[in-house]
Protein backbone atom coordinates (compact mmCIF):
# COMPACT_ATOMS: atom_id res chain seq x y z
CA UNK A 1 0.00 0.00 0.00
CA UNK A 2 1.52 3.31 -0.93
CA UNK A 3 0.71 6.32 1.28
CA UNK A 4 -1.26 7.80 -1.57
CA UNK A 5 -3.60 4.85 -1.81
CA UNK A 6 -3.81 4.57 1.96
CA UNK A 7 -5.03 8.17 2.08
CA UNK A 8 -7.73 7.51 -0.48
CA UNK A 9 -9.15 4.56 1.42
CA UNK A 10 -11.54 6.60 3.52
CA UNK A 11 -12.56 9.10 0.82
CA UNK A 12 -15.88 8.54 -0.92
CA UNK A 13 -15.99 6.89 -4.33
CA UNK A 14 -17.47 9.79 -6.30
CA UNK A 15 -16.68 11.46 -9.59
CA UNK A 16 -15.34 15.05 -9.71
CA UNK A 17 -18.90 16.19 -10.34
CA UNK A 18 -20.20 14.34 -7.30
CA UNK A 19 -21.82 11.20 -8.70
CA UNK A 20 -21.36 8.12 -6.50
CA UNK A 21 -19.86 5.04 -8.15
CA UNK A 22 -20.15 2.28 -5.56
CA UNK A 23 -17.22 -0.07 -5.28
CA UNK A 24 -17.74 -3.59 -4.04
CA UNK A 25 -15.36 -6.50 -3.65
CA UNK A 26 -15.24 -9.84 -5.49
CA UNK A 27 -14.26 -12.65 -3.14
CA UNK A 28 -13.67 -16.38 -3.27
CA UNK A 29 -13.15 -17.06 0.44
CA UNK A 30 -14.97 -15.56 3.44
CA UNK A 31 -11.83 -14.13 5.05
CA UNK A 32 -11.31 -11.88 2.02
CA UNK A 33 -14.38 -9.86 3.02
CA UNK A 34 -12.44 -8.18 5.82
CA UNK A 35 -9.71 -7.11 3.41
CA UNK A 36 -12.32 -5.75 0.99
CA UNK A 37 -13.68 -3.64 3.82
CA UNK A 38 -10.23 -2.58 4.94
CA UNK A 39 -9.50 -1.30 1.44
CA UNK A 40 -12.63 0.80 1.37
CA UNK A 41 -15.10 -1.62 -0.27
CA UNK A 42 -18.77 -0.80 0.29
CA UNK A 43 -19.93 -4.41 0.35
CA UNK A 44 -19.45 -7.67 -1.54
CA UNK A 45 -20.68 -7.65 -5.13
CA UNK A 46 -19.70 -11.23 -5.89
CA UNK A 47 -18.95 -14.09 -3.54
CA UNK A 48 -17.92 -17.07 -5.69
CA UNK A 49 -19.30 -19.75 -3.38
CA UNK A 50 -18.11 -22.68 -5.51
CA UNK A 51 -14.79 -22.20 -3.76
CA UNK A 52 -16.43 -23.84 -0.73
CA UNK A 53 -16.33 -26.97 -2.85
CA UNK A 54 -13.00 -26.45 -4.53
CA UNK A 55 -11.33 -26.02 -1.17
CA UNK A 56 -12.91 -28.93 0.71
CA UNK A 57 -12.22 -32.63 0.94
CA UNK A 58 -15.89 -33.44 1.60
CA UNK A 59 -19.07 -31.94 0.27
CA UNK A 60 -19.96 -28.80 2.27
CA UNK A 61 -22.95 -29.16 4.58
CA UNK A 62 -25.69 -26.60 5.12
CA UNK A 63 -23.83 -25.53 8.26
CA UNK A 64 -20.58 -25.05 6.29
CA UNK A 65 -22.42 -22.76 3.89
CA UNK A 66 -24.17 -20.95 6.73
CA UNK A 67 -20.95 -20.33 8.66
CA UNK A 68 -19.17 -18.98 5.58
CA UNK A 69 -21.98 -16.55 4.79
CA UNK A 70 -22.12 -15.37 8.39
CA UNK A 71 -18.38 -14.77 8.33
CA UNK A 72 -18.73 -12.52 5.28
CA UNK A 73 -21.58 -10.66 6.97
CA UNK A 74 -19.38 -10.04 9.99
CA UNK A 75 -17.19 -7.82 7.82
CA UNK A 76 -20.23 -6.12 6.29
CA UNK A 77 -23.13 -6.37 8.76
CA UNK A 78 -24.91 -3.36 7.28
CA UNK A 79 -23.86 -3.44 3.63
CA UNK A 80 -25.00 -5.48 0.61
CA UNK A 81 -23.41 -8.91 0.28
CA UNK A 82 -24.19 -10.76 -2.95
CA UNK A 83 -23.94 -14.53 -2.65
CA UNK A 84 -23.66 -16.14 -6.04
CA UNK A 85 -25.03 -19.67 -6.06
CA UNK A 86 -22.67 -22.46 -7.12
CA UNK A 87 -20.90 -21.94 -10.42
CA UNK A 88 -19.42 -25.44 -10.63
CA UNK A 89 -18.41 -27.30 -13.76
CA UNK A 90 -16.33 -26.55 -16.84
CA UNK A 91 -13.18 -24.84 -15.49
CA UNK A 92 -14.34 -25.09 -11.86
CA UNK A 93 -14.42 -28.74 -10.81
CA UNK A 94 -14.19 -29.72 -7.16
CA UNK A 95 -11.78 -32.40 -6.01
CA UNK A 96 -13.59 -35.70 -5.66
CA UNK A 97 -16.64 -34.49 -7.54
CA UNK A 98 -16.34 -36.41 -10.76
CA UNK A 99 -17.98 -34.58 -13.59
CA UNK A 100 -18.00 -36.56 -16.75
CA UNK A 101 -18.35 -34.66 -19.94
CA UNK A 102 -19.05 -36.97 -22.88
CA UNK A 103 -16.33 -37.05 -25.49
CA UNK A 104 -16.67 -34.24 -27.95
CA UNK A 105 -18.85 -32.15 -25.63
CA UNK A 106 -17.52 -28.73 -24.76
CA UNK A 107 -17.74 -28.37 -20.95
CA UNK A 108 -18.19 -24.58 -21.18
CA UNK A 109 -21.31 -25.17 -23.27
CA UNK A 110 -22.53 -28.10 -21.24
CA UNK A 111 -23.64 -28.91 -17.72
CA UNK A 112 -22.16 -26.17 -15.53
CA UNK A 113 -23.21 -23.47 -13.11
CA UNK A 114 -26.96 -22.93 -12.67
CA UNK A 115 -27.58 -25.80 -15.09
CA UNK A 116 -25.76 -28.14 -12.74
CA UNK A 117 -27.58 -26.74 -9.69
CA UNK A 118 -30.93 -27.28 -11.41
CA UNK A 119 -30.03 -30.91 -12.06
CA UNK A 120 -28.58 -31.53 -8.58
CA UNK A 121 -31.35 -30.07 -6.49
CA UNK A 122 -29.90 -31.48 -3.28
CA UNK A 123 -26.81 -29.28 -3.70
CA UNK A 124 -28.86 -26.29 -4.72
CA UNK A 125 -31.45 -26.56 -1.96
CA UNK A 126 -28.78 -27.00 0.72
CA UNK A 127 -27.13 -23.81 -0.39
CA UNK A 128 -30.39 -21.84 -0.67
CA UNK A 129 -31.43 -22.91 2.85
CA UNK A 130 -28.14 -21.66 4.25
CA UNK A 131 -28.45 -18.33 2.40
CA UNK A 132 -32.02 -17.76 3.62
CA UNK A 133 -30.96 -18.48 7.20
CA UNK A 134 -27.83 -16.32 7.07
CA UNK A 135 -29.87 -13.48 5.55
CA UNK A 136 -31.26 -12.81 9.04
CA UNK A 137 -27.86 -11.36 9.97
CA UNK A 138 -27.45 -8.70 7.29
CA UNK A 139 -28.24 -7.47 3.80
CA UNK A 140 -27.70 -10.72 1.89
CA UNK A 141 -28.71 -11.02 -1.73
CA UNK A 142 -28.86 -14.06 -4.00
CA UNK A 143 -27.43 -14.12 -7.49
CA UNK A 144 -27.86 -16.91 -10.04
CA UNK A 145 -24.95 -17.48 -12.45
CA UNK A 146 -25.02 -18.33 -16.16
CA UNK A 147 -28.75 -17.76 -16.66
CA UNK A 148 -29.47 -18.27 -20.37
CA UNK A 149 -33.27 -18.25 -20.63
CA UNK A 150 -36.27 -16.89 -18.75
CA UNK A 151 -37.49 -20.42 -18.09
CA UNK A 152 -34.25 -21.24 -16.34
CA UNK A 153 -34.51 -18.13 -14.17
CA UNK A 154 -38.12 -18.93 -13.26
CA UNK A 155 -37.18 -22.47 -12.34
CA UNK A 156 -34.39 -21.26 -10.05
CA UNK A 157 -36.75 -18.77 -8.39
CA UNK A 158 -39.39 -21.46 -7.95
CA UNK A 159 -36.93 -23.69 -6.13
CA UNK A 160 -35.98 -20.79 -3.90
CA UNK A 161 -39.69 -20.31 -3.15
CA UNK A 162 -40.01 -24.01 -2.21
CA UNK A 163 -36.98 -23.84 0.06
CA UNK A 164 -38.40 -20.81 1.89
CA UNK A 165 -41.71 -22.61 2.33
CA UNK A 166 -39.94 -25.63 3.83
CA UNK A 167 -38.06 -23.41 6.28
CA UNK A 168 -41.36 -21.80 7.25
CA UNK A 169 -43.03 -25.16 7.84
CA UNK A 170 -40.08 -26.42 9.83
CA UNK A 171 -40.17 -23.34 12.06
CA UNK A 172 -36.57 -22.42 11.19
CA UNK A 173 -35.55 -18.77 11.39
CA UNK A 174 -34.94 -17.32 7.95
CA UNK A 175 -35.54 -14.14 5.98
CA UNK A 176 -38.52 -14.08 3.64
CA UNK A 177 -37.62 -11.03 1.53
CA UNK A 178 -34.26 -11.66 -0.12
CA UNK A 179 -33.38 -9.69 -3.24
CA UNK A 180 -32.74 -12.00 -6.19
CA UNK A 181 -30.45 -11.05 -9.05
CA UNK A 182 -28.73 -12.72 -11.94
CA UNK A 183 -25.42 -12.66 -13.72
CA UNK A 184 -25.53 -11.29 -17.22
CA UNK A 185 -22.87 -13.42 -18.81
CA UNK A 186 -24.58 -15.30 -21.63
CA UNK A 187 -25.36 -13.33 -24.81
CA UNK A 188 -28.93 -14.72 -25.02
CA UNK A 189 -29.70 -13.19 -21.62
CA UNK A 190 -28.09 -9.84 -22.47
CA UNK A 191 -30.14 -9.63 -25.66
CA UNK A 192 -33.30 -10.33 -23.63
CA UNK A 193 -32.31 -8.00 -20.79
CA UNK A 194 -35.57 -6.00 -20.99
CA UNK A 195 -37.58 -9.13 -20.26
CA UNK A 196 -35.23 -10.35 -17.53
CA UNK A 197 -35.32 -6.95 -15.83
CA UNK A 198 -38.99 -7.52 -14.96
CA UNK A 199 -38.19 -10.68 -13.05
CA UNK A 200 -35.09 -9.89 -11.00
CA UNK A 201 -33.99 -7.23 -8.51
CA UNK A 202 -30.55 -6.59 -10.03
CA UNK A 203 -28.14 -7.54 -12.79
CA UNK A 204 -24.42 -8.10 -12.54
CA UNK A 205 -22.52 -8.32 -15.80
CA UNK A 206 -19.95 -11.12 -15.85
CA UNK A 207 -17.64 -9.98 -18.59
CA UNK A 208 -15.31 -12.98 -18.26
CA UNK A 209 -17.93 -15.37 -19.56
CA UNK A 210 -19.78 -12.79 -21.64
CA UNK A 211 -16.63 -12.28 -23.73
CA UNK A 212 -16.01 -16.02 -23.97
CA UNK A 213 -19.53 -16.77 -25.20
CA UNK A 214 -19.96 -13.73 -27.42
CA UNK A 215 -16.65 -14.11 -29.23
CA UNK A 216 -16.81 -17.92 -29.11
CA UNK A 217 -13.33 -17.82 -27.55
CA UNK A 218 -12.29 -19.93 -24.59
CA UNK A 219 -11.35 -17.65 -21.69
CA UNK A 220 -8.37 -19.85 -20.84
CA UNK A 221 -6.77 -20.31 -24.24
CA UNK A 222 -3.88 -17.90 -24.86
CA UNK A 223 -3.75 -18.88 -28.54
CA UNK A 224 -6.92 -16.91 -29.22
CA UNK A 225 -6.35 -14.06 -26.79
CA UNK A 226 -6.46 -11.74 -29.83
CA UNK A 227 -10.19 -12.52 -30.05
CA UNK A 228 -10.96 -12.62 -26.34
CA UNK A 229 -11.08 -8.85 -25.77
CA UNK A 230 -13.14 -6.70 -23.39
CA UNK A 231 -12.73 -3.88 -25.88
CA UNK A 232 -14.57 -5.72 -28.63
CA UNK A 233 -17.42 -3.51 -29.90
CA UNK A 234 -19.86 -6.43 -29.55
CA UNK A 235 -19.15 -6.59 -25.81
CA UNK A 236 -19.58 -2.86 -25.38
CA UNK A 237 -22.92 -2.98 -27.17
CA UNK A 238 -24.15 -5.88 -25.03
CA UNK A 239 -23.17 -4.00 -21.88
CA UNK A 240 -25.06 -0.98 -23.18
CA UNK A 241 -28.18 -3.11 -23.78
CA UNK A 242 -28.05 -4.50 -20.24
CA UNK A 243 -27.47 -1.09 -18.63
CA UNK A 244 -30.35 0.47 -20.56
CA UNK A 245 -32.69 -2.38 -19.63
CA UNK A 246 -31.76 -1.94 -15.98
CA UNK A 247 -32.32 1.82 -16.17
CA UNK A 248 -35.67 1.46 -17.88
CA UNK A 249 -36.94 -0.91 -15.17
CA UNK A 250 -35.16 0.89 -12.34
CA UNK A 251 -33.01 -2.04 -11.22
CA UNK A 252 -29.32 -1.68 -10.35
CA UNK A 253 -26.69 -3.02 -12.74
CA UNK A 254 -23.09 -3.72 -11.84
CA UNK A 255 -20.10 -5.25 -13.58
CA UNK A 256 -18.28 -7.98 -11.65
CA UNK A 257 -16.08 -9.46 -14.40
CA UNK A 258 -12.40 -8.67 -14.73
CA UNK A 259 -13.18 -5.72 -17.03
CA UNK A 260 -14.30 -3.56 -14.07
CA UNK A 261 -10.99 -4.18 -12.29
CA UNK A 262 -9.07 -2.86 -15.30
CA UNK A 263 -8.44 0.90 -15.00
CA UNK A 264 -8.45 1.15 -18.80
CA UNK A 265 -12.15 0.30 -18.97
CA UNK A 266 -13.47 2.07 -15.88
CA UNK A 267 -14.12 5.47 -17.57
CA UNK A 268 -15.95 3.66 -20.38
CA UNK A 269 -18.14 1.70 -17.94
CA UNK A 270 -19.04 4.89 -16.06
CA UNK A 271 -19.80 6.58 -19.38
CA UNK A 272 -22.09 3.71 -20.36
CA UNK A 273 -24.10 4.41 -17.20
CA UNK A 274 -22.72 1.96 -14.64
CA UNK A 275 -22.85 3.24 -11.06
CA UNK A 276 -21.68 0.07 -9.31
CA UNK A 277 -18.54 -1.93 -9.93
CA UNK A 278 -17.43 -5.06 -8.14
CA UNK A 279 -13.69 -5.50 -8.30
CA UNK A 280 -10.73 -7.46 -6.99
CA UNK A 281 -10.37 -6.20 -3.39
CA UNK A 282 -6.75 -5.09 -3.62
CA UNK A 283 -7.59 -2.83 -6.58
CA UNK A 284 -10.38 -0.91 -4.81
CA UNK A 285 -8.16 2.07 -3.84
CA UNK A 286 -6.68 2.37 -7.32
CA UNK A 287 -10.07 2.23 -9.05
CA UNK A 288 -11.46 4.75 -6.59
CA UNK A 289 -8.59 7.12 -7.25
CA UNK A 290 -9.41 6.92 -10.95
CA UNK A 291 -13.14 7.51 -10.41
CA UNK A 292 -12.35 10.62 -8.38
CA UNK A 293 -10.66 12.10 -11.48
CA UNK A 294 -13.62 11.53 -13.83
CA UNK A 295 -16.60 13.67 -14.66
CA UNK A 296 -19.78 12.06 -15.92
CA UNK A 297 -19.95 14.29 -18.99
CA UNK A 298 -16.39 13.40 -20.02
CA UNK A 299 -17.04 9.71 -19.42
CA UNK A 300 -20.24 9.91 -21.48
CA UNK A 301 -18.41 11.63 -24.34
CA UNK A 302 -15.76 8.95 -24.21
CA UNK A 303 -18.41 6.20 -24.29
CA UNK A 304 -20.17 7.85 -27.24
CA UNK A 305 -16.91 7.92 -29.18
CA UNK A 306 -16.18 4.29 -28.32
CA UNK A 307 -19.66 3.24 -29.44
CA UNK A 308 -18.80 4.45 -32.94
CA UNK A 309 -15.66 2.33 -33.19
CA UNK A 310 -15.47 -0.90 -35.15
CA UNK A 311 -12.60 -2.91 -33.73
CA UNK A 312 -11.16 -3.87 -30.36
CA UNK A 313 -7.83 -2.40 -31.48
CA UNK A 314 -9.40 1.01 -32.06
CA UNK A 315 -11.28 0.90 -28.77
CA UNK A 316 -8.33 -0.18 -26.67
CA UNK A 317 -5.79 2.19 -28.20
CA UNK A 318 -8.21 5.08 -27.75
CA UNK A 319 -8.83 4.09 -24.10
CA UNK A 320 -5.08 3.81 -23.51
CA UNK A 321 -4.61 7.36 -24.75
CA UNK A 322 -7.42 8.63 -22.51
CA UNK A 323 -5.99 6.74 -19.55
CA UNK A 324 -2.60 8.38 -20.02
CA UNK A 325 -4.25 11.80 -19.91
CA UNK A 326 -5.88 10.96 -16.58
CA UNK A 327 -2.73 9.73 -14.85
C1 LIG B 1 -17.62 -13.61 -15.10
O1 LIG B 1 -17.87 -14.55 -15.85
O2 LIG B 1 -17.29 -12.47 -15.51
C2 LIG B 1 -17.66 -13.77 -13.64
C3 LIG B 1 -17.57 -12.74 -12.83
O3 LIG B 1 -17.77 -15.03 -13.15
P1 LIG B 1 -16.57 -16.09 -13.12
O4 LIG B 1 -15.31 -15.36 -13.52
O5 LIG B 1 -16.56 -16.62 -11.74
O6 LIG B 1 -17.03 -17.09 -14.15
MG1 LIG C 1 -18.81 -16.33 -15.09
TrEMBL record:
Q: Where does phosphoenolpyruvate bind?
A: 48, 84, 208-209, 219
Record-annotated residues binding Mg(2+)? 185, 209
Q: Which cofactor does it need?
A: Mg(2+)
Which reaction is catalysed here?
A: L-histidyl-[protein] + phosphoenolpyruvate = N(pros)-phospho-L-histidyl-[protein] + pyruvate
Chief localisation class: cytoplasm
Q: Where is the PEP-utilising enzyme C-terminal domain?
A: 4-294
Q: Name any GO cellular component annotation.
A: cytoplasm
Enzyme Commission number(s) of this protein: 2.7.3.9
Tell me the Gene Ontology biological-process terms attached to this UniProt entry: phosphoenolpyruvate-dependent sugar phosphotransferase system
Q: Which residues form the active site?
A: 256
Report the subcellular localization: Cytoplasm
Q: Which UniProt keywords apply?
A: Cytoplasm, Kinase, Magnesium, Metal-binding, Phosphotransferase system, Pyruvate, Sugar transport, Transferase, Transport
Could you cite one Gene Ontology molecular function of this protein? kinase activity
- Explain the purpose of this protein: General (non sugar-specific) component of the phosphoenolpyruvate-dependent sugar phosphotransferase system (sugar PTS). This major carbohydrate active-transport system catalyzes the phosphorylation of incoming sugar substrates concomitantly with their translocation across the cell membrane. Enzyme I transfers the phosphoryl group from phosphoenolpyruvate (PEP) to the phosphoryl carrier protein (HPr).
Q: Which family does it belong to?
A: Belongs to the PEP-utilizing enzyme family.
Query: Would you tell me the protein name for this molecule?
Result: Phosphoenolpyruvate-protein phosphotransferase
- Which species is this UniProt entry from? Planctopirus ephydatiae
Q: What is the lineage of its organism?
A: Bacteria, Pseudomonadati, Planctomycetota, Planctomycetia, Planctomycetales
Gene this chain is encoded by: ptsI
* Region of the whole protein represented: 251 to 577 of 582
Amino acid sequence: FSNRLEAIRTLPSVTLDGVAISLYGNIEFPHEAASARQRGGEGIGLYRTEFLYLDASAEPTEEDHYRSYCEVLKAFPDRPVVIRTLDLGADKLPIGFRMEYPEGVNPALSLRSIRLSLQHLDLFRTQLRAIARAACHGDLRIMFPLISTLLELRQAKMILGDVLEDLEEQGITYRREIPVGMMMEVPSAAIMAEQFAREVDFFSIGTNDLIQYTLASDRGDPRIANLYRAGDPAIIRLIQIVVKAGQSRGIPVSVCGQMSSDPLFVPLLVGLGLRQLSVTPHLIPEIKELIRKLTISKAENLANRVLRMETANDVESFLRGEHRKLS
